[in-house]
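Bumping with the actual sequence this time:
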Amino acid sequence: MYKIVLATRYLLKRRITYFAVLAVALCVFIVVVVMTVMAGLVNEFKEKNHRFAGDCVVGTQSLVGFAYYEDFVKLLEQQDFIEAVSPTIKSFALKRRRGSGQDAIIEVMGIDPVRHSQATGFGDSLYYHADDVSKTFEIASDANLAGCVLGDYVLLQDTYSRNFNENNIPRIAYSISCFPLTARGALAQVGTDLVNTKTFYFSDQSSTGLPRVDGSIVYLPFDQAQVLCGMERSPKRASRLHIRFMPDVNIQAGCEKIQSLWQKFRQDKSDEIQAYTLDTVTVQSWKQYRRESIAPLENEQTEMSVMFGFVGITTVFIVLVVFYMIISHKSKDIGILKSIGAANIDIIELFSLYALLVGIIGSGIGLLAGWGFLLKINPIEDWLFEHFGFQLWDRTMYAIGDIPNQVEFGMLATIVISAIVASLIGALIPTLQAARQKPVETLQVGQL
C-alpha cells in the first residue's frame, strides 16, 4: 500500500514530473492526430482504387490485347462466385478538342457502361448519368452522335470548369486518334489510313477521386474503342476483364479460383491461331493491379511510423532525465525505506509504479486532446480557409473531401500501450540505480 501512496505523492508534489507527463501527452497527441489522418487517407485511397478496378483484373499490359476474351467471359459468368464481368479496351490516343488546334496524349478506355458499373464503381463516379448508366454515352440532342466521358481533370484542363448545368450540357467535340495494331503488334493500316480517327462529343464526366486517373482517361463506348484500336477483327480482342465477386467471397481466394480457370482456358486454346496473345495475360487482385499507385502512399505511411518511433525514443530520454533528477533528490527516502526492511524489488516496484502513473496520465491526456482535435479538425480547417485562405491539403492535388478523422481503436490502444512502455523504459535505468543504493551511504550523519 505504501508504494501506491508514495508513487502518488511523488507524482503530485514533484513539479518536474509534469514535464514527463507533458512529454508523453504531447507525443501521444501528435501520433494520434497524424497517424489517424494518414491511415484515413491511405484507406480512402485504397477504397477508391478498389472501386476503380473491381475485385479482380484479368488482362495484359500489351497494347494489342488478347483474343478469345468472349469465351472466357462466358466461362466466368457461369461461376457462382462471380457477380459481374466487364471487358474493357485500354490504349493510348491523341485527343484534340475542336477549335483548339492542339493535341494531347491521353488514355482511352473502352467500356460497356452498364457492365462496367456492375463490376466496378464507374457508375457512382458519373456526374449526370449516375442514376441511369445505360445513357452514359448518349447525346440528348442527337442520338446519332457518339458520346465520350472525360475524367474530371481532363475536362478541367479543357474548359476550366468541372461542372456544367445539368440541363444544358455543352456540345464539345473531340477528335480521338489511335494507331490500330495487329495481334502481332504491327500497324494494322498503312498509307494515308495509318491512324483511326473518330469524333466524339462530351456526354458526361467521371470523378473517381484518383487524380492520375481523372487527369488522363477518356472513356469511349466499347465497340467503337475496339474499332479505333484495331481489335475488332476476328477473333476480337480486349485489354482487360474487370471482375466483381459475390459479397461473401474472399478476394484472394476468388483470384486463385480465376487463376485456375485461366490456366485451364489457356491450355484449351493452345492450338488456336492467336493463342500467343494469351501468354502475357495475368490474373491480379485489385491491390496487385493498382500496386504502382498504392505502394508510394503505403511507403509514406511506413516512413511516418518510423519517424514517430524516433519521437517515442525522445520521450524515453525525457522520462529518463526526469526520473534521474527525481531519484537523485529522493535518495534519503530510499535509504529510510531500505533501513526499515524494503528490498531492492520493492524499490523497483515503487518507481516502476511511479513511471506507470506518468505513462497512464500522460497518454490519457494526449489521447483525449488528440481525439477532441480530430473531432474538430474539419471545422478548424474550414475556419482557417474562410479567414486566411489556408488548407492543409490542396484539393487540386489531393482529391479528398473532409479530412479523415475516424479513429481506429486498435491503433489508439497500440499508441497508448507504446507510450506507457516508453515511460517504463525511460525510468528503468534510474530505478535500477535507486534499487542498488545502500542505506549506509544515503543516511550518513553528514547528509542528514
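The C-alpha cells above came from a reply further down the thread. The mean pLDDT is 83.
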